[in-house]
Amino acid sequence: MRSNDRRRTAIGVAAGSLLVLAWVAGIAGSSWPSERGLYRVSYESTLSPIVINRMHGWILHVESADGKPLDGASIEVSGGMPAHRHGLPTRPRVVAELGDGAYRVEGLRFHMPGAWEIVVTIEAGNAVDRVVIPLKL
Amino acid sequence: MVSRLWILAVVIVALGGVGWALRPSPPPPWSQTEIATLRSLWIESLPPLSDDPTNAVADDLRAVTLGQRLFFDTRLSVNREVSCASCHDPDRHFTDGLEKGRGVAESKRNTRSVVGSAYSPWQYWDGRRDSLWSQALSPLEDVAEHGANRLELVRFITRDAAYRRDFEALFGPLPDFSDPGRFPEAASPLAGDSARRNWQAMSERDRDTVNRVFAYVGKAIAAYERRLLPGESRFDRYVAAVIDADEVRQAELFSNAEVRGLRLFTGEARCLDCHNGPLFTNDAFHNTGLLSYPGEVPDVGRVDGVRQALADPFNCRGAYSDAEHSSCPELDFVMQGPELLGAFRTPSLRNLTGTEPFMHKGQLETLEDVVEHYNEAPAAMIGHSELEPLGLGRRERADLEAFLETLAAPVRSP
């Protein structure tokens, strides 16, 4: 009886830990691989939560395939709403390279609720690849 | 006889039953998600107007009063008959009821309301100006609108004792434009040929002096226009009743048709895609496949507007802006390119009543026509339309229209 209780407690704790881990991973932000697998990108928004019609910036964290921060890359940001056949209402760009694989992008604004895609094109050396980040507003 | 009475009684009961079965059912209650959407459209959700760093007198009460006088002053026109209020008529929610604005002559586009426009980063249908004050300057020299010229205007301001006193109180001593050798009678980079030649002949320094005073005129008018905000509509009172869960008040304020219209607006009809927030606009540019005005080539809209905004000497980055030049994010990150062909700025839907005809050339006469346009979603004549046909029936279209009428409200001027 006691060992059964203990087993149940252990299972409960394990399940609870997994939930907490998943939650932490959720708030820490997801990351997205590039189409050809050369890079991986995550972001933090200076506007949180992201709401429509407000100009704001993102910090992009760019890693190479081996998980190391990628500095000195040339980065372009575009995107749009595929369902509405239009792009971004602004032309955001990298305004500062912060080091440790971080890049500050300014000039983002989303002017409609719905499904957006942010396309980050990364060029380092001669290797160009792009990451598509989905965003639901 | 008795049997006839029986038949009549049965028929009456049967008809009553049919009537009961077909009685209008009350609309279903709003879900929490829907209430959040309604709240996002509520006038109480409108944030306070942010500062305009390009205009140092934007919130100066003396500028508001001065701007109001300028707004209604017909002396700021070539024929002394046209003021800002000629097209932006306070009795028509600051519009004119015409397809295209009419000052000295007919202008190229429909007159937009000034109410709430201080919230937009762009002015005009094509966003060719990036502030209220730079917008206020252009009609003054437009040959179809005020038809005046820059030098004549600034000279008038300096010679009118009341204006001179009020401008100097706000902006400091005004320059002297009386030397005919330096300041010809008429001069402007935009108005007619001879005025343009005179402008070119002036020294750069003198042109700058004229421009500076000209910009003051726009900045004072803008201070007045910033105060023109939409008041509380029946829709806003309804949202308050929804938030308070006051069903009796909700039923008093909104008919079932209006509730159905609102539900379509925020859902299936997808109006909220562009007409969002408390002013019912995202202030962005969209191609919605409007027909061109009869006898005219299709209007290219934002493609040209963005080019003009960037070239405007009175824009945020210009010499006459009070902003730090590093703080013009709208210009710094502005979208350009062919995607903006035939795109126009989303108008607010507050107070459509009495402001018809609609759209950038006044192509659509009534609200019914507007709803029908979005329902059909015709292909664009230039560029590509973002619309998809909605497939709404006659009753749904009428419901949508009924809802839009609930957004009527008087202007609030704090």
Explain what the structure shows.
The complex is a heterodimer of chains A (137) and B (414). Chain A has one helix at residues 2-28, and strands at 31-33, 39-45, 56-64, 74-81, 86-87, 93-99, 102-108, 115-124, 127-136. By secondary structure, chain A is of the alpha+beta class. In chain A, the strands form two sheets. In chain A, strands 1-2-3-7-6 form a five-stranded antiparallel β-sheet, with no helix packed on it. Chain A has a four-stranded antiparallel β-sheet with strand order 5-4-8-9, with no helix packed on it. In chain A, a hairpin with a 4-residue loop joins strand 4 and strand 5 (86-87). Residues 18-28 of chain A have low confidence and may be disordered. Chain B has 414 residues and is an all-alpha fold. Chain B contains 16 helices and four strands. Chain B has helices at residues 2-21, 32-41, 61-71, 84-87, 132-141, 150-159, 161-171, 193-201, 204-225, 234-243, 247-253, 256-266, 302-311, 329-332, 367-376, 394-405; strands spanning 229-230, 285-286, 344-345, 411-412. In chain B, helix 5 crosses helix 9. The N and C termini of chain B lie far apart (74 Å). The chains are: A alpha+beta (137), B mainly alpha (414). The A-B interface holds A 52-53, 55, 84-93, 106-107, 109, 111-114 and B 272-274, 276-277, 282-286, 329-330, 332-336, 339, 384, 386.
